[in-house]
Write a structure and sequence with these properties.
The complex is a heterodimer of chains A (about 500) and B (about 190). Chain A has about 500 residues and is an alpha/beta fold. Chain A has 11 helices and 22 strands. Chain A has helices at about 25-35, 60-65, 105-115, 120-135, 145-160, 195-200, 255-265, 330-335, 340-350, 390-410, 495-510, and strands spanning about 1-5, 10-15, 20, 40-45, 80, 140, 165, 165-170, 205-210, 210-220, 220-230, 235-245, 245-250, 280-290, 305, 325, 355-360, 370-375, 380-385, 415, 445-450, 480. Chain B has 8 helices and 2 strands; from the N terminus they run ααββαααααα. Classes of the chains: A alpha/beta (about 500), B mainly alpha (about 190). At the A-B interface, α2, α8 and α9 of A face α5, α6 and α7 of B.
């Protein structure tokens, strides 16, 4: 049964065995496998329940409907836009469907640095197999590779750089291009179309428009979740709702899962809680091509090609180097990436069909922390503090140079970065100017789509928040199954790693 | 030039629209030449007779400021004739603000206060932003960018709202070649 908040007309008290908080990559997978095993399960999701017929492919409508803070959640210095899905299905409804596993070097790095000896390629084989099958992970059909991505592939090959068409979780994609705004064709197999309805079929209940505020320990090792039914859209408090349960699975993201533990007073003895945040900041590059050279970045699969020539994963640090990937499907963000304003800027509008859009992905080390303010009605405002490391900035500039080289080689007449005070490069002769690129709040905007590591996994409370079963250290029956458990960035795209982690942990939980 | 209170300055330094929301409630003394103080405390250019449509979120004086901002970001002329005033961009933004996160929307008011009353001084201008010529407003925006930090962050917010709501508007598409949503009913 799916219960939407507006159908709840008075305070409610519910009871279940396992409460899952969050319905995205982690929560959806956990809910299904629990329900499948016959465990009485309730899922609460703060966002609303929405279906394909509502997805009108208009940015001004879809961002407020499907994203946390309408897509305008920022780090405290205003430099990184931390984008999160916030609806039935969470991030799996609004991501660009890219499917990557955790690289072997990353698993080895975790084992060496954090002692996660039980997380191996072998132990994750079965979870990956199930996840890939359930959400239809396959290499993207070449017919969906648009020119924006295709020119990256062709040019990289000309330059002798490694590049390939990515895998994704689509089925029946028509190439409309609006993955970021919710798929109007139900072709992206997020948890909203797979794990969640399957969980409901197995008897789970999903409550949307319900925010979990805090947990209270009752009767020894049982829990009472104090929740709030919120008004859809503005998220103002409507009604109280409590859920008594034997077990809690928190899957509310690396930004919000720590908030629930902290507000519950459960942070004592967990010094890593809310710390070690990784955001994988991404920088946008826009290439302007000749008027006759139509790119039309908003059609086809928005992100289908990765240039991984400069990826540099290692056992010592996990993900490293940088990658270039096409991006598209939303015209507003691409226009904003282009620098300047006024009449001079309108040329980017006139040549919109000739603009390419590329993302530079530079994996980071844990570099941030999250703290919170709570309003009287329980509404939580995260303060996301993030410090860019010097080594990361160096890789960023190296990536900017390679990205611009690639776009000029592809035929771009100018290359702009998402920096309002940095004039576009007009030719390869301008590449040396990248050394002067100012990485300062107010001037440059990065995007983050993969927040991780604020409840990282490890061997003790001293170095982590959860153990290798994803159970919170020192707390009976409280688990975390979202991106926050990754000790460092798991992959350049984290949906599949989070799904596999939840699958792995739930199966262990059920076996025990 | 009015000095912004220290508390607000620190709030501004957070650089988020949420933080900027605090500014919307701060009363500022009217002392700028060529301006009047409106009922809500904002300075608006003297003799402003802009036609103000029914508003959903902004006050009339905030609307006047926003119209000047959008006109600066997307003026008439240049690569194509259509500009922000031609499509009622300020009214479009106003109509969407009530649907946004309340903290973001309130922060947008604060950002408007900053642009209207504080930013002109960065370019040596004493009048409020909406009382300046287009050339002067352009100079103010360039000064905001060059200043970095808070002024640049506010500029970025203004650009974000202006461009997002302009280029997603159907009336602009024939100038840009954007062919809009692809909703094939047969496939849904």
């Amino acid at each position: 049964m799916i219960v939407q908040g507006h159908d709840i007309t008075g305070p409610r008290s519910l009871r279940t065995h396992t409460l899952v908080v969050g319905s995205g990559s982690g929560g959806g997978v956990a809910a299904y496998h629990l329900a499948e095993a016959g465990v009485d399960t309730i899922v609460v999701e703060e966002g609303g329940y929405h279906v394909a017929s509502e997805f009108n492919q208009r940015e001004e409508d879809m961002y407020p409907m499907l994203y946390r803070s309408g897509g305008q959640q920022m780090t405290s210095d205003g430099m990184i836009n931390v984008m999160q899905g916030s609806c039935y299905g969470g991030g799996t409804v609004i991501n660009v469907s890219d499917a990557f596993d955790i690289p072997s070097e990353v698993l080895a790095h975790w084992q060496r640095t954090y002692g996660t000896s039980e997380w191996t390629e072998k132990s994750l084989e079965a979870p990956y197999r199930r996840v890939h099958r359930n959400v239809n992970v396959k290499r993207i059909n070449k017919s969906l590779v648009n020119r924006n991505n295709g020119l990256l592939l062709e040019t990289a090959q000309k330059l002798g750089w490694s590049a390939e068409v990515m895998h994704s979780n689509r089925k029946g994609c028509v190439g409309s291009g609006y993955c970021l705004l919710g798929c109007a064709y139900d072709a992206r197999l997020g948890t909203n179309l797979t794990y969640l309805p399957w969980a409901v079929e197995k008897g789970a209940d999903v409550y949307t428009d319900v925010r979990c505020d805090r947990l209270e320990r009752i009767n020894g090792s049982s829990w009472r979740a104090h929740c709030t039914v919120v008004q859809r859209g503005l998220r103002t408090a409507r009604l109280p709702l409590t859920i008594d349960c034997e077990r809690v699975v928190l899957a509310a993201s690396a930004i919000f899962t720590p908030a629930i533990l902290l507000r519950s007073g459960l942070g004592d003895g967990l010094p890593q809680l809310g710390r070690n945040l990784t955001l994988q900041p991404q920088l946008g590059l826009v290439g302007r091509f000749d008027e006759g050279d139509e790119i039309v970045h908003w059609r086809g699969a928005p992100q289908s090609v990765e240039v991984d020539e400069f990826a540099d994963n290692s056992v010592e640090r996990g993900l490293g180097g940088f990658r270039l990937e096409g991006i598209g499907g939303a015209i507003g963000p691409v226009m904003i990436m282009t620098p300047g304003f006024g009449r001079e800027h309108k040329r980017f509008g006139k040549y919109m069909r000739n603009l390419s859009a590329t993302l530079l992905l530079v994996p980071d080390q844990p570099s941030g922390a999250v703290s919170y303010q709570w309003a009287e009605d329980g509404r939580v405002t995260p303060k996301i503090d993030y410090v860019m490391q010097d080594e990361w900035k160096q890789r960023l500039k190296a990536g900017m140079r390679r990205g611009a080289e690639l776009l000029f080689a592809a035929g771009a007449r100018e290359v702009a970065f998402a920096n309002q005070a940095f004039p576009p490069l007009r030719s390869p002769d301008d590449l040396s100017r990248i050394a002067d690129f100012r990485i300062e709040p107010g001037l440059v905007t990065f995007n983050s789509a993969h927040n991780q590591s604020t409840c990282r996994m490890g061997t003790s409370p001293a170095n982590s928040v959860v153990d290798q079963n994803l159970k919170v250290h020192g707390l009976e029956n409280v688990y975390v199954m979202d991106g926050s458990i990754m000790p460092t960035s798991a992959a350049t795209h984290t949906m599949i790693p989070i799904m596999a982690a939840a699958d792995f942990a739930v199966h262990r939980m059920l076996q025990s | 030039m009015n000095q912004i209170p220290e508390m607000t300055r620190r709030v501004f330094l957070n650089q988020t629209l949420q933080a900027l929301g605090a500014a919307a409630a701060i009363p500022l003394a009217a002392c700028t030449v060529g301006s009047v103080k409106s009922s809500t405390g904002m300075l608006v250019k003297t003799g402003s007779a802009a036609e103000i449509p029914p508003l959903d979120f902004l006050t009339p004086d905030q609307y006047v400021a926003l119209e000047s901002v959008t006109d600066t970001m997307i003026p008439r002329g240049g690569a194509f004739e259509l500009g922000a005033r031609d499509v009622g961009l300020a009214a479009r933004i106003d109509s969407h603000l009530p649907r946004l996160d309340p903290a973001v929307a309130q922060g947008f008011r604060g950002a408007l206060v900053f642009v209207e009353q504080q930013a002109p001084s960065l370019a040596g201008k004493a009048a409020p932003f909406s009382g300046l010529s287009e050339e002067e407003r352009t100079a103010v925006c360039n000064a905001m960018l060059q200043a970095g930090g808070l002024p640049a962050g506010v500029f970025m917010a203004m650009k974000f709202f202006s461009l997002s709501y302009f280029y997603t508007l159907d009336a602009t598409w024939k100038y840009t070649g954007y062919d809009g949503p692809m909703l094939l009913e047969d496939s849904r």
